[in-house]
Amino acid sequence: LDSEGMTLESILTMYQDREYELLPIDGLRKVVAKRLTNAKKSIPHFYLRRSILLDKLISLRTDINQSVKDSECKVSINDFIIKAAAKSLQENPKCNVLWGEKNLIQLKSSDIAVAVAIHNGLITPIIRDAEKKSLQEISLEMKTMAEKARQKKLLPTEYNGGSFSISNLGMMGVENFDAVINPPQASILAVGS
């Protein structure tokens, strides 16, 4: 049964005059759907929006990347966002919390989970202690984690936990969106173009 109380049979009956193909839902999609549904039910959500100009950041990124000959060390806009989030959590420790039913669990480190699209879903590898890392270290680690995620080689310790998540769809032209908090975290940053 789905949330409306409809069975697969009743849905297929409703669409019996339409051509369709049944696609089984794999384990990862089931887990993601369950976690996101539970997050919306159990974690208070409210949304804030802010537009910012990144001209100076883009210029700084260009300067940094021109000074680095090794393409492996080139930084992305997302790397700056990860570093800024980590620093912000250190400056605002009451935001660096987990939702623990009757308690908030305030973490000391800024462990930033970053949404990575993979076949049939997404996963959030974690840059641990991001507040202590340089942009280049964040960049290299994020590239490594994203590749491991796409190859389905992440260890559970590399994607479970985190104190804060970032979901960035700006590079796809999405202007803004409402990301769903990744439990037990208490916040997420949705980045649009």
Describe what this molecule looks like in 3D.
Strands 6-3-7-8 form a four-stranded mixed beta sheet, covered by helices on one side. Strands 1-2 form a two-stranded antiparallel sheet. It has helices at residues 8-14, 27-42, 55-67, 77-91, 135-150, 156-159, and strands at residues 97-100, 103-106, 112-114, 116-118, 121-123, 126-127, 164-168, 188-191. The protein has 193 residues and is an alpha/beta fold. The protein is globular. Helices cover 37% and strands 15% of the residues.
Share of helix, binned: 25-40%
Structural class: alpha/beta
Q: Average the pLDDT over all residues and give the rounded result.
A: 88
For the biggest sheet, the summary is: 4 strands, mixed
How much β-strand is present in the residues? Answer: 5-15%
Shape: globular
SS summary, helix count: 6
Order of helices and strands: HHHHEEEEEEHHEE
Distance between the termini: 37 Å
Strand order of the largest sheet: 6-3-7-8
For the secondary structure, the number of strands is 8
Radius of gyration: 19 Å
Low-confidence stretches: none
